[in-house]
């Protein structure tokens, strides 16, 4: 089976036919499936879509049960958690709906973990980390763009000289470099390449 455009989060099952991994959709399985929009809804109270999955959480005063339903908890209401709570051996603990969030100093509200600055996030070569609330994603470094080449997605150098993304002087030549470009004044001109006289 050959899939010309590849299957980003799935397997190639037939000529240009992808079978997506759970949580993904689209012809090339490159789109995140928003489970929160499905009918019936997977969560009773609140649903938070995540990359390839989702998290359920309950309104204040309710506890999240393993099946995604919310059970009334008078204890939870007294603690006043931002995203609901769970009772463990009679102890009430507030919950955060994502691994990229942690309980704040008050033990009730959730604060973002910056995976990019803590080093928890590992992005492959040519990619930089972008922090989001509750998570992160990897983006191509400046001067590179995401392209589908030889069966996978890669960050490929942008040729600024071809795309006219350079600011070289009219009397300068543009030279493409890995991730960037240089301007060089033509013969008979002097300057930085951005200014030539």
Question: In short, what is this structure?
Answer:
The protein has 197 residues and is mainly β.
Describe the structure.
The chain has a two-stranded antiparallel sheet with strand order 1-2. The mean pLDDT is 85. The protein is mostly beta strands. It has helices spanning 74-79, 115-118, 160-163; strands at residues 10-14, 17-20, 24-25, 31-32, 46-50, 53-57, 62-64, 70-72, 85-88, 91-94, 101-103, 110-112, 127-132, 135-140, 144-149, 152-157, 172-177, 180-185.
Biggest sheet record:
2 strands, antiparallel
For the record, the CATH architecture of the domain at 34-112 stands as: Ribbon
Distance between the termini: 59 Å
SSE class: mainly beta
- Shape call: elongated
Radius of gyration: 25 Å
Low-pLDDT parts are: none
Instruction: Determine the mean pLDDT.
Output: 85
Query: What is the number of strand segments?
Result: 18
The number of helices is: 3
CATH superfamily of the domain at 34-112: Laminin
Keywords for this entry:
18 strands; mainly beta; EGF-like domain; differentiation; calcium ion binding; Laminin; signal; 3 helices; elongated; NOTCH1_EGF-like
List the topology elements.
Layout (H helix, E strand, L loop, with lengths): L9 E5 L2 E4 L3 E2 L5 E2 L13 E5 L2 E5 L4 E3 L5 E3 L1 H6 L5 E4 L2 E4 L6 E3 L6 E3 L2 H4 L8 E6 L2 E6 L3 E6 L2 E6 L2 H4 L8 E6 L2 E6 L12
Antiparallel strand pairs: 1-2, 3-4, 5-6, 7-8, 9-10, 11-12, 13-14, 15-16, 17-18
């Amino acid at each position: 089976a050959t899939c010309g455009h590849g299957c980003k989060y799935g397997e190639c099952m037939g000529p240009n036919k992808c079978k997506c991994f759970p949580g993904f959709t689209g012809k090339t399985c490159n789109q995140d499936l928003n489970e929160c929009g499905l009918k019936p809804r997977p969560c009773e109270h609140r649903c938070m879509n995540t990359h390839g999955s989702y998290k359920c959480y309950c309104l204040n005063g309710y506890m999240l049960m393993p099946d995604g339903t919310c059970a009334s908890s008078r204890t939870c209401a007294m603690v006043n958690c931002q995203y609901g709570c769970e009772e463990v051996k009679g102890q009430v603990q507030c919950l955060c709906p994502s691994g990229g969030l942690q309980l704040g100093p008050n033990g009730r509200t959730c604060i973002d973990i910056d995976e990019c600055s803590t080093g928890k996030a590992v992005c492959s070569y040519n990619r930089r980390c972008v922090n989001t609330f509750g998570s992160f994603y990897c983006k191509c470094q400046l001067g590179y763009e995401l392209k589908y080449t030889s069966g996978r997605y890669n960050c490929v150098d942008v040729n600024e000289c071809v795309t006219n993304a350079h600011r070289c002087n009219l009397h300068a030549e543009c030279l493409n470099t890995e991730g960037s470009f240089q301007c060089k004044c033509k013969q008979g001109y002097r300057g930085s390449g951005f200014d030539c006289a």
